[in-house]
Specification:
With 367 residues, this protein is an alpha+beta fold. It folds into two domains: 168 residues, no CATH class; 135 residues, Nucleotidyltransferase, domain 5 (2-Layer Sandwich). The protein is built from eight helices and 14 strands. The strands form three sheets. Strands 2-6-7-1-5-4-3 form a seven-stranded antiparallel β-sheet. Strands 10-9-8-11-12 form a five-stranded mixed β-sheet. A two-stranded antiparallel ribbon has the order 13-14. Bound molecules: zinc ion. The site of zinc ion has 7 residues, from loops.
Length: 367
């Protein structure tokens, strides 16, 4: 089974510059190649009797080395893969266009989907270091898969963050499932409430770190920007943020592994922007980060451990129905922690009721 693995790089400024140069070279090669291929197509439309062969990826690379690279010495500073893969991507783009699968390739602008691909001697060193040709050793925040050699990696930028991604060949392991199914309700009060009654809260350490960061920011709010005191304060905040990041990652890792290994079917709600409103704007924005990561990890772990992930649509009123009889509580507010059903004369924790509904609906969906 091929798993896409993507994780954020932890870079210093020099490394950022090197990566930006590679992405710039890839973009430059792509745009140069696109200009040439467009000229070829234009020529062929206007000169049907004297058509030129449309260049292959290899033709494009030969032309690039001979005419473009020699005229732009800065290209030699970066790995040759950057340009080569960009041209291959361009040719693939044209193929998809000729087959009418997608629109013609477009010129790339700086800062939009900056990315490049590398191959060659790629090694994972230690738990979170990655050795790449030309670029050298890069660190990642997250631990990397061990005893594995990626053939090629893609490095990309999203706003000011850089990511590395590669395909990972893994053998799915069918774990002995002790339970049939579970519904998981995500929330702000409790991170996850399971339909078997288990509740998972974000670790106390997480909340303590957040309070610490907020206090530090308040106390230092008058520090002069650029002063030594300001720099020390910033470094402290950055370290705390990193610990916060690790604490969250660790928590989500344990929870998703437990779910994927224990249950045959894991049912969750689809999370999206309107789902966020369910929790109120501010808390929602913060919580959503964790929810997306939860979903991402759960999805690949379910594949890895042979369980089924069932995602129910947001239009399913999982929190408003009584899980036993389906009576609809029209006026249930966010602050109501207890769900009371007059039909059954029964009170139940609202999150538990929601998770039971999620399980019921999730199981009714075909795989
Ligand atoms: Zn009822």
């Amino acid at each position: 089974m091929l798993l896409g693995f993507k994780t954020e790089l932890r870079l210093n400024n020099e490394q950022r510059i090197v990566l930006a140069k590679h992405a710039g070279t890839a973009r430059h090669a792509y745009n140069q190649g696109l200009a040439l291929t467009k000229q070829v197509l234009d020529w062929n439309t206007t000169h049907p009797e004297d058509k030129i062969k449309f260049p292959t990826a290899i033709d494009l690379h030969k032309w690039y080395v001979a005419s473009i690279k020699s005229a732009n010495p800065w290209i030699y500073e970066v790995s040759k893969c950057a340009g080569q893969y960009a041209l291959k991507a361009l040719r693939d783009g044209w193929d998809r266009c000729f087959k009418k699968i997608s629109k013609p390739p477009k010129f790339k602008k700086k800062g939009q989907r900056d990315a490049f691909r590398l191959d060659g001697t790629i090694k994972i060193l230690g738990v979170n270091h990655l050795q790449l040709p030309v670029i050298g050793v890069l660190r990642t925040f997250e631990n990397l898969p061990q005893s594995f050699k990626p053939k090629s990696v893609t490095i990309s930028r999203q706003s000011d963050k850089w990511f590395v991604s590669f395909n990972l060949e893994v053998e799915p392991t069918q774990t002995e499932k002790t339970n049939l199914s579970v519904g998981v309700d995500l929330g702000v009060k409790h991170f996850a409430t399971l339909s078997n009654g288990q509740v998972f809260d974000v670790p106390a350490l997480y909340k303590r770190l957040k309070v610490k960061i907020a206090k530090l920011q308040y106390v230092n709010r008058h520090k002069v920007i650029g002063s030594q005191g300001y720099k020390d304060f910033q470094a402290k905040v950055a370290r705390l943020h990193y610990r916060l990041f690790c604490a969250r990652k660790d928590f989500l890792n344990k929870l998703t592994t437990y779910l994927a290994k224990t249950f045959q079917v894991v049912c969750i709600e689809n999370l999206n922007v309107s789902g966020m409103l369910k929790f109120g704007r501010l808390a929602g924005a913060v919580a959503m980060l964790g929810f997306y990561e939860f979903r991402r990890q759960l999805a690949y772990k379910c594949k890895l451990y042979g369980s089924r992930l069932s995602v129910i649509g947001r239009w399913e009123p999982s929190s408003k129905l009584h899980h036993k009889c389906g009576w609809k509580h029209e006026t249930l507010k966010l602050s109501d922690r207890i769900f009371y059903c007059p039909e059954c004369d029964e009170s139940i924790d609202r999150d538990l009721n929601a998770s039971l509904n999620i399980e019921r609906i999730g199981l009714s969906l075909s795989s």
